[in-house]
Amino acid sequence: MWAVATLTFFAIRLIPGDPAQAILGGPGSQASQEALDQVRRDYGLDQPLLVQYFAMLGRLLTGDLGDSYALKVPVAELLGAQIGGTLLLAVLSLALAWVLALALSLVSTGRGRIATAVGEGVELTAAALPQFWLAAVLIAIFSTGLGWLPPVATGTPSGLVLPVVTLAIPLAGFLAQVMRESLLDAMAQPFVISARARGESAVGVRLRHTIRHAALPGISLSGWALGWLLSGAVVVETIFAIPGLGRTLLQAVTLRDIPVVTGVVLLIALVYVVMTVLTDVASRIADPRLRQEAGR
Amino acid sequence: MRAAPVTATTTKRRAGIIAGAVALVTTITLAGCQAAEPEASGDPVEGGTLVYASGDAEPTCLDPHVGGNYPQALIAGQFLESLVSRDESGEIIPWLAESWEPADDQLAWEFTLREGIEFTDGTPLDAEAVKVNVEHLKDPATQSSTGYLAMGKVESVEVVSDRVARFVLSAPDSALLESLAQPWTAIQSPAGIARGMDANCQAPVGTGPFIVDEWVKQDHVSLVRNDDYASAPADAAHTGPAYLEGIEWRFVPDSSTRYAALQGGQVDVIDNPQPDTIAATEGDDAFTWIDAPRPGASNRIELNSGQAPFDDERVREAFIRAVAVNDGIDSLFFGTAERSYSPLSSVEPLAHSDETLFETDVDAANTLLDEAGWTERDSDGTRMKDGARLTLRFPVSTNQSIPAEQSLFEQVQATAKEAGFEVVISLLDLSSWYGALFAHEYEIVSAPYTKVGPDVLRILYHSDSITPAPSGYFANLAQLDDPEVDALLTGAASTSDPAERAALYEQAQQLILGGHYLLPLYDQQNSFLLSANLQGARAMPTVSTPSFSDAWLID
């Protein structure tokens, strides 16, 4: 977390843009010298960079993310108001991606060459779809064409459908690809034959036995997936006009609103850490072998 | 006003793909668009909430005194009002002030306020309120930029009586009324201002037809009707409260989403429609297009005359003769933009045009470049002189230039190449773009500038504007440094004789155009697409922001 804060702090100062101007109405501001001086004093921007850096670290250690330059409100308050929407979007998308990926790999694996080829083709295509294109097509079909769903998400459940589907489809493609491989491995294992020999149906084998094997790489990929979803949120939140962290980050970078950028980046790093722990736990639940090792 | 960060998020490639996707489900009719002021049909209907989808950046503060950009002006016009307004002919007309009179020496102006007007918090509109507003604009703590500049020659405001406020000037200012007509100098409740910046940014208090009720960041601002509204500008269609009960002002950064929402009836008005969208709705009764070019400067490419190679007028003229933009404007803007030959917007009555200076002639360009000593050519065909290549750096702001304009710049690049210019386009975000300008790392650049009245010429082309402001900002991007132009612009800004003012501005524009400092393209594009159920809406003739005080919705 410290490394992330440090990197962000120095990286944003490498790109052109004066923080004092960010405070005074954004880039290209024609603020007076008095206003600039006052702002530099108030925000400590007249101090040497290292002093500013340690001041920021000190604040962060006490849990203070500072105030937004542009919006003049505490960053914690700003992020607190926006994180719920983005997490909801990400979690729903991850859940839908899982359902789609499991369904696809269970249906198309080990059912002959044509099913495999179709399944692989669908996965590859889905994984390669750019979100902005997918969003435009979904809007064209379901909003403009059929009129079933609104293009602007206004906080209603129906408004979330298109954004969630936009994020979930490419992710489902990725997940299904890795699941298919381990599913194939598992299907070739002797336990499958013995299960079938006991009279288990083909579907039963998949649901009771091989699904765990298929899920394992998917679970470890989910930590990465959530990070991918948060970056995808920048695109999707902008297209569907959903309030959230992605748009907050985009606006903050444009305006060189350093405290907000640092805050969002730290928050995403925290989510990564939490997700890594969670996927670890989930892997243990799905794979008894890991539990035994831990028990020793 | 310098341009504001518009979140035109579509990249060109993306816009193309989306246009393709939209084309699947809509019928695109490509015909010359004819903008019309919507003809109100039938009697006004009371009630209903208008949903507005704005593609401009969400303001960081709703008080346009703070900073002062176009997104703020767009929404502030719904709840704040100015002392004066401007009608469609460019005449200044009464608004919160019913009359005004300059002193003989032009160093003081007395404004008489309308009687019986109250801010929506119950505070009376009086001369003291006007004084507090001007002081608020001039206070560094307010962090005003646009309004602060507009009040540059105003030293103080004196309270003559309850209803009469005297503006004391440091020098005669022929642009004072135009400055006061802008939303960035709108009059707010002193009690509202006294709440401090945080509260006032969240919900400024004015005299306007609507009141800020709630602002949900990144989502929407709820505006409710001011039932006591009684201060419509002199050119309004009706007096008294608005017909609409309220406005839901939504922030929808993506242009194709805005259009889809309008088509689906989710919103009633969108701003910043892209040219292909406007063309797609042409001839469709379900939509009305309000074309409202912004006042002030035209959109133009400025040639940096402060350094080589454009310190040589022959090279500037060669560039202007070499590039061809007319076909590009027609095809890329689908007939929604008209070529300009003036430094000023076509809405400015004092704009001077000269088409003859801008006829494309590659042979003439080649001759001029030969004369200027750019005679050698390298393997790419780029001209050289003393080992230096004829390279033009062209920083382009992706926040300000819509995809169609970026494509147009590529056509400029291609046509200039024929004469031996190498144009290097860099697509930059707003902060980086300003960084390039401040460092003088450009030979050509296009920067919009919105202001009411021809005084914008002084800001853009007076040599004083070459000196950077403390923030690094300078407006004279052509770096035009001509004492004769300075004298004309200063004279025009201080004369009290309208005929003399017009003559001085015309001469100044002749010199500016004749010196080949800029290539005018078109008016600063600004328009609104309305659902046909919305009647009576208009764009204000001041800075072309939308007004809904006369508007109503039909089912």
From TrEMBL, chain A:
Signal peptide: none annotated. It is a multi-pass membrane protein. It holds the Pfam family BPD_transp_1. Residues 83-279 form the ABC transmembrane type-1 domain. It is found in: Cell membrane. Belongs to the binding-protein-dependent transport system permease family. This is ABC transporter permease. It comes from Agromyces humatus. The lineage of its organism: Bacteria, Bacillati, Actinomycetota, Actinomycetes, Micrococcales.
TrEMBL record, chain B:
SUPFAM superfamilies: Periplasmic binding protein-like II. The keyword Ribonucleoprotein does not apply. It holds the Pfam family SBP_bac_5. Its main location: other. Belongs to the bacterial solute-binding protein 5 family. Residues 1-31 form the signal peptide. This is ABC transporter substrate-binding protein. It comes from the Bacteria. It is found in: Cell envelope. Residues 91-462 form the Solute-binding protein family domain.
